[in-house]
């Protein structure tokens, strides 16, 4: 598919990953497939009773589609109180397949460089782990060959949010050059072989790497405040945009307030007020 073509999708399957997080599989209209590089996202347009609205989601496929660069989207989405997409996607699971969306993409700079650096730091909070699943799949051959070292730091609130635990711990057991730090802010995590556990925010794990920060390329994804704080720590250590790639999961309203001008209705109101003021 050409970049930014609009494609229609249908939801085909929904799986609960935790009480507040679900995995969603889509199929494309007329058997079309979408292109992507590990780490990218698509913009989804959904329709509800109030009309159309757009939300961005990282592509979380971590199977053979990563090496082919061709996929039908698999998403991991966490519910948000009073969220518009949440209302649509977290209803009765059985009634969801068939839900339609239009997508454009792929977008995003959270992708791997052609020449891998000696160390790659991946920092995520919650569903910010989504783009790292295909990234880790893309890195497996380099991990096996000993070409790079990967340090994943994953911030969650409690054990139930440790998404993809089996897959991530398998990687940590299999590769000495893959280190997995899981930081839980609300409770101590049970001891798990191959996982470095921390009680607190993901910034705690980052601190231990700051003295050697310049030895690698950093990826930050998820909660915007976490990203600002970690970026400030890395900037203090002398790093800048060349060494740190950020993807903030900003809410749609923040995006809208930055990019959109007044609506037609607001423009009409402004014109009426101006007319009154000038007369
Ligand atoms: C590039 C990019 C990639 C993204 N990828 C993913 C992804 O893979 N998985 C995923 O789950 N989300 C992802 N998001 C976030 C996603 O686009 C939506 O913002 C999210 O699903 C909430 O949408 P909603 O319609 O349910 O809530 P909205 O209707 O947008 O928000 C409802 C209310 O909740 C607040 N709110 C919204 N989101 C949050 C939040 N996360 N925490 C606390 N309060 C919030 C809003 O300010 C608002 O008051 C991504 C965002 C971006 C920009």
Provide structural commentary.
This protein has about 280 residues and is an alpha/beta fold. It has 2 domains: about 5-105, Beta Barrel (Elongation Factor Tu (Ef-tu), domain 3), CATH 2.40.30; about 120-255, Rossmann fold, CATH 3.40.50.80. It has 8 helices and 14 strands. The strands form 3 sheets. It has a 6-stranded antiparallel β-sheet. About 35% of the residues are buried. The structure holds flavin-adenine dinucleotide (FAD). The site of flavin-adenine dinucleotide (FAD) has 23 residues, from strand 5, strand 7, helix 2 and helix 7. Flavin-adenine dinucleotide (FAD) binds near residues 56, 76, 78, 80 and 85.
What is the element layout, followed by pairings?
Elements: E1 7-18, E2 21-28, E3 34-35, E4 41-48, E5 51-58, H1 65-68, E6 70-71, E7 74-78, H2 84-89, E8 100-107, E9 119-125, H3 132-145, E10 149-156, H4 165-174, E11 178-184, E12 195-199, H5 203-209, E13 217-222, H6 224-236, E14 244-248, H7 252-259, H8 264-278
Parallel strand pairs: 9-10, 9-13, 10-11, 11-12, 13-14
Antiparallel strand pairs: 1-2, 1-8, 2-7, 3-6, 4-5, 4-8
The structure holds flavin-adenine dinucleotide.
Flavin-adenine dinucleotide binds next to strand 5, strand 7, helix 2 and helix 7.
């Amino acid at each position: 598919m050409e970049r930014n073509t609009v494609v229609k999708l249908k939801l085909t399957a929904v799986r609960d990953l935790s009480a507040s997080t679900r995995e969603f599989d889509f199929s494309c209209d007329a058997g079309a497939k979408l292109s992507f590089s590990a780490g990218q996202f698509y913009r989804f347009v959904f329709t509800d009773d109030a009309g159309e609205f757009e939300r961005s989601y990282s592509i979380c496929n971590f199977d053979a589609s990563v090496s082919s660069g061709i996929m039908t989207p698999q998403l991991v989405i966490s519910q948000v109180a009073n969220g518009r997409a949440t209302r649509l996607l977290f209803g009765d699971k059985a009634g969801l397949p068939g839900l339609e969306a239009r997508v454009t993409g792929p977008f995003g700079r959270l992708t791997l460089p052609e020449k891998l650096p000696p160390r790659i730091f991946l920092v995520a909070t919650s569903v910010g782990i989504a783009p790292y699943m295909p990234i880790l799949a893309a890195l497996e051959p380099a991990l096996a060959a000993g070409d790079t070292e990967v340090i994943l730091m994953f911030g969650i609130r409690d054990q139930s949010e440790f998404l993809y635990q089996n897959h991530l711990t398998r990687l940590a057991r299999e590769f000495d050059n893959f280190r997995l730090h899981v930081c839980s802010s609300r409770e101590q995590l049970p001891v798990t072989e191959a996982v470095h556990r921390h009680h607190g925010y993901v910034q705690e794990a980052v601190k231990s790497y700051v003295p050697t920060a310049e030895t690698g390329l950093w990826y930050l994804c998820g909660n915007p405040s976490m990203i600002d704080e970690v970026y400030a720590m890395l900037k203090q250590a002398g790093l800048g945009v060349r060494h740190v790639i950020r993807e903030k999961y900003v809410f749609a309203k923040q995006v809208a307030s930055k990019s959109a001008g007044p609506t037609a209705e607001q423009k009409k109101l402004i014109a009426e007020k101006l007319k009154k003021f000038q007369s």
